[in-house]
Amino acid sequence: MDEEATSLPEVVYHYTSMETLLKIVESRSIWATCIDYLNDVTEYSFYLEQVDRRLREFVKNGDSQSAFFESYLKGRTGMGSGIIRRRPFVASFSAEPDFLPQWRSYCPNGNGVCIGFRTNCLVRACFSDNEVVRELNRPFHDVRFKQVVYGVSDDRRLDEELREFLSAAADFDNQIKNKLGLDVIFQSILGFRASAQKHPAFKPEAEYRIVVDGLLDNSENLVRYRASRTTLVPYIKLNLPKKAIESIPLYESISELRSRDFIHRVIVGPTPNMSLSTGALRSYFSGLGMSVNVEGSKVPYRDW
User: Fold this and answer.
1) What is any Pfam family matched here (predicted)?
2) Quick one: which of 93, 114, 213, 282 has the fewest CB in 10 Å?
3) Is the pTM of this model over 0.90?
C-alpha cells in the first residue's frame, strides 16, 4: 500500500444501493471499475495532460532522456486505445460518512446505504482468481490502496516523478520489456499514478480508492462486464478478507473480537422507511453472525 497504515482512516465509506450491499456481503467482494467508465470525464487524463506538458519541456530543453520522451509522446495518442485490460481499475470510497452530496450522487432515491469498510481489510484486497495472475518482477504491486490527490502537480515534483517512473520501467525484467516494450510499461506506470489524481472540483468527496494496475498478465481472464444505462461497463472482482488484522490485547472478550468484521458500520440513507430498513439490516447482520453498527442517516433530506 502507498501510505503507512497509521496514516489511513480506520474506516472509509462506500455509497451505494441496498441491493448492492447484499451482494457485497454475500460474496465478500467489491468491483473495481475500468477507470475510463467513472463519472469524472477527466479521470485518467487530468494527470497525463500535466505529464505531456512537462515531457514536451524536457524534449525542448534537450533533457538526457529526451529521445525516449519524444518517441513516447509521438506514440502515446493511440497507445492502449481500446485495450481495456491495459487501463487501471478503481473501487472508490470516501472519508465522509452521511454526506448529503454523496447520497445525491451515488444512491437511488430512498434506497441508499453508506457502507463503512475497515481500511485494514481494503488494503488486503486480492483477485478472485489469483491463479491466472502471474507475479511480475517489478517494484509495483498489482493492487494498492491510495488516497486521491486533487489539483495540479507541482512542476518540480512532477519532473522527479517522471524520471523515477522511467527508471522503474527500465528495471523491469528483460523478458517483460521485450514482450511489452519500454513505452507500454512506462505508460502503465503513469496510468497507475494518474488513477489517484483528480480535478479539484471533486475534492469534497475526500476519496480513497483501491487501484488495480493496468499491466496485468492474462488480465483478460479477470475482466468482467455489467450493463449500465448506456453501455457495458468493464470491472474486476476483488475479494476482501473477512476480518481485520489488529493488535488485540489478551484481556479483550470474544464478543469484542467478533466486532472486527470487514464491514464496521452501515448508515441507511434518507428514506420514508427508516425504522423498517434499519431493523431489517440489524436482523440480517445478526443472522450472519456479524457485528455491524446499523444506524439511520441524520441528514434532513427528502427525495421521494
Assistant:
1) DUF2971
2) 282
3) no
Is 301 within the bounds of a domain? no
Domain ranges, residue 214: 5-296
Query: Contact, 163 vs 60, CB < 8 A?
Result: no
Question: Where does residue 260 rank: exposed (0-12), middle (13-18), buried (19+ CB within 10 A)?
Answer: middle
Report the 10 Å Cβ neighbour count for 37: 18
Please give the tally of structural domains in the chain.
Answer: 1
- Per-residue pLDDT tens over the stretch 39-87: 899 998 899 999 989 988 888 887 777 888 888 887 765 444 446 667 8
Strands (E) in the chain, as ranges, are 11-17, 29-34, 89-94, 112-118, 126-127, 143-147, 149-150, 197-198, 207-212, 223-227, 232-239, 263-268, 293-296
- With respect to residue 214, please indicate whether it lies within any of the assigned structural domains: yes
70 located within any domain: yes
Grid cell for residue 287: 443472522
3-state SS class at 92: strand
**Is 252 exposed, middle or buried, given 0-12, 13-18 or 19+ CB atoms closer than 10 A?**
exposed
State the cell numbers at 298. 441524520
> Helix 45-60 and helix 66-76: axis angle, to 10°?
140
Eight-state DSSP code of residue 86: G
| CA separation for the pair 159, 55 (Å, rounded) | 8
